[in-house]
Predict the 3D structure of the following.
Amino acid sequence: MESGFKDKQKKSYHLMRMSYDITISIILLGMAVIMLFADKLNIEQLATPDNDLFRYFFGGLCLLYGSFRLYRGLKRDY
């Protein structure tokens, strides 16, 4: 009987972890798109020439980490 509870608890943890990873990856990938394409999206607060290096660097990091979180969420190996 305790084994059934532990299995249910483990399955619940995996589902929660997968949904968390996918949600965070969507947020990070959205941030990456906003940072990398701020010029084309006409976001004037981000598209200033004095912060282009930071914007591309941060957008690249968000893209890499968001992709990793999406892969980990879809792989489901916890």
